[in-house]
Amino acid sequence: MGAPKQKWTAEEETALKAGVLKHGTGKWRTILSDPEYSSVLKSRSNVDLKDKWRNISVTALWGSRKKAKLAQKGTPTSGPRPDDNATAITIVSLANGHIGGDVGGQLMLDAPSPPEASCEPPRAFKGPFTSVDKIILEAITNLKRPFGPDGKSILRYIEENFKMQQDMKRLVSSRLKYLTNVGTLVKTKHKYRISPNYMDEV
Amino acid sequence: MGAPKQKWTAEEETALKAGVLKHGTGKWRTILSDPEYSSVLKSRSNVDLKDKWRNISVTALWGSRKKAKLAQKGTPTSGPRPDDNATAITIVSLANGHIGGDVGGQLMLDAPSPPEASCEPPRAFKGPFTSVDKIILEAITNLKRPFGPDGKSILRYIEENFKMQQDMKRLVSSRLKYLTNVGTLVKTKHKYRISPNYMDEV
DNA sequence: CGGTAGGGATAGGGTTCT
DNA sequence: TAGAACCCTATCCCTACC
């Protein structure tokens, strides 16, 4: 009827990956609207992009969605094995890493704090943070929740303890996603905790 | 972020329904502030409540929001199946019915049923039409707008064509909401038209 | 500014096709 | 039979409008 299973071409897949690299995961409509990819992807919907990306990621991580589900149920303690097939993981990381510097060009998280950002973090614990990531890790550490705080708590902590001149919601959300993807954080039931392997880096 | 899909529990849903029953639809912040529900719903926002209620209502009426939209556009033949899931419909009716007697106590229009209406399960469809409802239907019919008149036009029509001794604004607004909820009216872009399925009841 | 309504996007479970 | 492609819809997000 409508679409007899339109297989993804290599070109489309490349465009999708580039799009995720540029705009981050979860920005399917944005990617689709980007003139850089819209021509190649014009026969795809935002949902198609989402589904395809899921296939790519999950395949790289587990081999298939089915295995992924089984793995999540059967082995609650062991996370994904990054050594399996790192390509998609790399792409995910890369993509999310790029988010920071992208959205509106205003995020610029790693810019070594401008001359005197006109707003000094009032209650910073570890001096001038140049990275939102560090703030997030601090939040998780200080919040001391049994299974880790959830995203809202983290966001609230940051908003209450730092003077930010912008809305941190999306940025924090992006970075949580990123830190989870690269394995720095472990996400369980919407709660984030710092991976044991990274505790010493905090 | 914090909750990429925090599914509603049965308990939360019950609290929401009770809240609507008590305070009426559209009073999401009020429901959230009511100590009777605030503990159960503490992880929800007023917007969450609004969305969930929309989902409950629309699911009961049409099966899903998508189907509802499709039904509004085409498919003149198939309407909602009242026998499908009447519970939410009933609750919607009940809730809105209570609104009438609630706000300022001045609405209190015509209880079509005897005094003991308070403990009686209301009939959702063909339900308690008030005289104002009939006037509203007349207004919509006579105004003959392409996609139906909006609330203001309906109100103006009533004020111009009937001598009412009270301010009809809130009352008309309530009844429009009610008639929309029970499926008698279909609301699209602030305009109201009579559902094809109820045209013959006018 | 805070709240609500409504449109619309996303996430994830489920289904169909190959 | 597995996996890719696609569907369904609860939930979440954005914006206009009071």
Automatic annotation (TrEMBL), chains A, B:
Keywords of this entry: Chromosome, Coiled coil, DNA-binding, Nucleus
Superkingdom per UniProt: Eukaryota
Domain Myb-like: 5-57
The keyword DNA-binding is assigned to this record: yes
Gene (UniProt): LOC104711513
Shown chain mapped onto the complete sequence: 1 to 202 of 305
Domain H15: 128-196
Cellular compartments annotated: Chromosome; Nucleus, Nucleolus
Domain HTH myb-type: 1-61
Protein name stated in the entry: MYB transcription factor
